[in-house]
Amino acid sequence: MSQGPDLGSSTRLLVVAPHPDDETLATGGLIQEALSAGAHLRVVILTDGDNNPWPQRWIEKRWRIDAEARVRWGARRRGEATTALSRLGVASHDIRHFGWPDQGLTALLMRDSQCEDRLVAEILDFAPDLIAAPSLADRHPDHNAARAMLELALARTPQASCRRLGFVVHGTMIGRECLALATNEEQVRIKQQALQAHASQLVLSRKRMTRICGRIEQFESSGAQSAPVATAHQRDWQIPYRHSGLRLHRRALYLIAEVGGQMIRTRLPLPRSLARAVTHTVPGDWGPLTVQLHAAVDGLRINLDSESVVHQAFAKVQRLGPRILIYDDAGWMRK
């Protein structure tokens, strides 16, 4: 574990938070360090955190949460984030609220490129040289989807090679090389004070959120992914996957691939048994993409093959249907 990151008056830091409170929990210290160094800062909060019914039921003393109630709750959480950021020293004109659906970022990612278009516009407008955003390994589906969106958006901008700092709110950094941010007592106090602005989230989860807020801020540090070989018509890799004969919920492979300069987004059935490969053919203007899936004890092996160049790909085993538990077994994997 190493110290960092280096921040200065020329730094342009973009913080991407999936929900109100992530900006404080994951980057409250980083934001203070950046502002102290005179860096330029912008914070983008993707959702209003409106799909969090249990605290709302507790506070509002109501059971039914309809569309109007969700809008009201989202407005409350948006205001809490603005207050929290002001306590960290961030001016309101440096905050962007996108208002995307809470617990719906995976669906937006798989639907089309509109969210990436919005991120592209924000990146071009601010021109960051440093971005703090969720890690692909974060187990909250909104968090890992947000990072996949960001990577797809960055690839379309001149900032494609800018440095990334990946944070994990839900999960751990165990086994990962990371930077640790050294904060002083006053910065820790201010960060905890900022957390108090998120009163709606503390009402049922104060101990858990205080514990997360008190952790040393750690970040995966990376630049752009290595450019793919121009003649790469195949991609082979393995992603986490636990095959079980006891099926408590349906699962599918979510796949996003850039083939021949075009993006495909598809959902594919998984193999029904171990040691059995299934092959899917995805048609397109660029020619067919052949996807072979092989379920093994140690994960799901994926082979992509196309007549056109496969520039990049993201894959994830996704639970389908309503969820009792929000968190993923694993996030998106990039190749």
The CATH architecture of the largest domain would be: 3-Layer(aba) Sandwich
Radius of gyration: 20 Å
> What are the segments in which pLDDT stays under 50 over at least 5 consecutive residues?
226-230
- DSSP summary, beta strand count: 16
Largest sheet: 8 strands, mixed
Distance between the termini: 25 Å
Helix content: 25-40%
Determine the CATH topology of the largest domain: Rossmann fold
| Beta strand % | 25-35%
Order of helices and strands: EEHEHHEHHEHEEHHEEEEEEEEE
Give the integer mean of the pLDDT values.
91
Provide a brief overview of the structure.
The chain is of the alpha/beta class and 335 residues long.
How does this structure look, described?
It is built from eight helices and 16 strands. With 335 residues, it is α/β, with parallel strands linked by helices. An eight-stranded mixed sheet has the order 1-7-8-6-5-2-3-4, sandwiched between helices. A four-stranded antiparallel sheet has the order 9-14-13-12, with no helix packed on it. Helix 1 (22-36) packs parallel to helix 3, helix 2 crosses helix 8 (199-213) and helix 7 (185-196) packs antiparallel against helix 8 (199-213). The chain has two domains: 2-222, LmbE-like (Rossmann fold, 3-Layer(aba) Sandwich); 234-334, mini-chromosome maintenance (MCM) complex, domain 2.
